[in-house]
């Protein structure tokens, strides 16, 4: 193809924006990229997001966001996990630079960060637009079509919005989230949804509200994250926005009969939130008592999609491909949803770059993307499922055994540690998607 590639991305979440940046940087000549976003504007509501070293590797090395990360991110020294009833420390895992041990750097090559979702989204958006991507808001994509002949520019893919606007492209990337509409054009049906039984509350407080309170400051929020684990629930708190805002994510059982939309904007009732924590440690209850505004998300599960690419053969199939939660909806128990979307973005960008250089049919490269990403994202999902069971155990022999193992593995006991298993952690955090996808593309060449 002599002209630049024309790419339409549906969804300006973390996955869609990361894809825009990665593709602009990797594919030559620089493609024309249009991002269609349903929202009227990219909202300022969100929550903290844990950026594990595998995601930092993508943001710093592949998307060029090292300076922005240093500006907005918080580098935690440790994670402390506490018992629900009395805040006894169950385990402590050093992350960055505690006791002179910059573990994440040493073990995985990159740091662990805490970011506010809005900061992450806005740094990606700024970079994407600097690189020439165009963002169209109030653009709700409802239809996708592949035509064999294509238009006068040879573009065979098109997306139509609810207001009738149509955008043509060589490739359409559906990064439209867990409730993806475009995935139906890949699968031929809507993805089934089941409740997980859990809801996520989120809240932020000014830093001073927590750190100027000696009871709360003594838990160690200044330098790391603190997690309370208890029956059916857990709470995590850490600083974001360069340390100026305190963020909490609170996972509890759904209230009977309460079914809400999955959105960052739905407000929850702080009193109802607090009811879940009667009998929990007084310091946690003191922390929760400070919450005036909270947001609620009923978590729903969706299966891993069998296929991420529109049906058809290499010659006549459509170039519609899924990315991020649209392909592999992730629950927040392992903090890997955004990370997996960012890894997808790099993989897809390298595939498109390779296809352009080698004059491959795009579908050949898109098939490799799917082949490399499915098993990886499946294992990330599994990590989340295991964390849920591990975090939410009822008190009893299983929990006592868990606590014993956690205590043995704790860095505060100066034992060789890993938040469970060094090999698993290396596989999760040490993963280099760029190296993996380059290897797969070279093998296929
Ligand atoms: C409470 C909670 C905490 C989490 N914490 C973490 C964490 O700490 N670390 C981590 O890595 N992950 C975390 N995750 C998961 C992470 O947020 C998601 O996996 C990630 O945001 C997925 O990004 P995405 O771009 O695929 O989808 P989304 O972020 O959902 O973005 C999809 C975008 O597409 C737009 N859109 C939807 N439909 C259309 C349409 N038809 N047309 C046009 N635009 C459309 C939406 O408006 C949205 O902007 C958490 C999730 C939750 C719920």
Report on this structure.
The chain has an eight-stranded mixed beta sheet with strand order 5-4-13-14-15-12-17-16. A five-stranded parallel beta sheet has the order 7-2-1-11-18. The protein has a domain at 194-301: 2-Layer Sandwich (D-Amino Acid Oxidase, Chain A, domain 2), CATH 3.30.9.30. Helix 1 packs parallel to helix 5 and helix 1 packs parallel to helix 11. It has helices at 14-26, 53-62, 66-72, 103-108, 117-130, 183-187, 207-211, 214-217, 270-275, 282-289, 337-358, 362-391, 397-409, 422-429, 433-444, and strands at residues 6-10, 32-36, 48-51, 78-83, 89-94, 113-116, 134-136, 141-146, 157-161, 166-169, 171-174, 194-206, 224-230, 233-240, 245-253, 267-268, 294-301, 320-322. The radius of gyration is 22 Å and the shape is globular. The longest helix has 30 residues, at 362-391. The protein is of the alpha/beta class and 445 residues long. It binds flavin-adenine dinucleotide (FAD). The site of flavin-adenine dinucleotide has 36 residues, from helix 1, strand 3, strand 12 and helix 11.
């Amino acid at each position: 193809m002599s002209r630049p590639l024309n790419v339409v991305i549906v969804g300006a979440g973390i996955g869609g924006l990361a894809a825009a940046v990665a593709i602009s940087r990797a594919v030559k000549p620089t493609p024309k990229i249009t991002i269609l976003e349903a929202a009227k504007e990219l909202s300022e509501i969100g929550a903290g997001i844990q950026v594990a070293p595998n995601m930092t590797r993508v943001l710093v090395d592949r998307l060029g966001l090292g300076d922005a990360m240093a500006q907005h991110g918080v580098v935690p020294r440790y994670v402390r996990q506490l018992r629900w009833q009395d805040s006894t420390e169950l385990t402590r895992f050093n992350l960055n630079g505690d006791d002179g041990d910059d573990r994440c750097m040493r073990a995985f090559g990159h740091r662990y960060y805490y970011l506010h979702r809005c900061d992450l989204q806005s740094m990606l958006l700024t970079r994407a637009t600097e690189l020439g991507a165009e963002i169209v808001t109030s653009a709700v994509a409802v239809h996708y079509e592949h035509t064999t002949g294509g238009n006068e520019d040879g573009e065979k893919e098109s997306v139509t919005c609810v207001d009738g606007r149509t955008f043509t492209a060589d490739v359409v990337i559906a990064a439209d989230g867990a409730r993806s509409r475009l995935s139906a054009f890949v699968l031929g049906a809507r993805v089934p949804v089941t409740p997980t039984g859990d809801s996520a509350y989120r809240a932020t407080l000014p830093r001073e509200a927590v750190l100027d309170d000696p009871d709360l400051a003594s838990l160690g929020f200044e330098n790391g994250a603190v997690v309370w684990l208890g029956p059916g629930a857990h709470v995590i708190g850490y600083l974001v926005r360069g340390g100026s805002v305190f963020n909490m994510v609170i996972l509890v059982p759904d209230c009977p009969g309460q079914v809400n939309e999955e959105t960052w904007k739905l407000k929850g009732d702080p009193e109802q939130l607090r009811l879940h924590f009667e009998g929990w440690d007084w310091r946690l209850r003191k922390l929760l008592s400070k919450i005036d505004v909270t947001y609620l998300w009923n978590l729903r599960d969706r299966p891993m999609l069998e296929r991420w690419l529109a049906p058809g053969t290499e010659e006549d199939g459509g170039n519609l491909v899924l990315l991020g939660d649209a392909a592999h909806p992730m629950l927040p128990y392992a903090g890997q949803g955004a990370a997996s979307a960012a890894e997808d973005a790099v993989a897809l960008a390298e595939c498109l770059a390779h296809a352009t250089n080698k004059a491959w049919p795009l579908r050949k490269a898109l098939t490799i993307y799917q082949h490399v990403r499915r098993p990886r994202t499946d294992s990330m999902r599994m990590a989340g499922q295991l964390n849920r069971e591990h975090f939410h155990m009822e008190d009893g022999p299983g929990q006592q055994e868990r606590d014993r193992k956690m205590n043995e593995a704790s860095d505060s006991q100066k034992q060789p540690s890993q938040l469970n298993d060094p090999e698993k952690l290396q596989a999760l955090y040490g993963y280099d998607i760029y190296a993996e996808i380059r290897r797969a593309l070279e093998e296929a060449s």
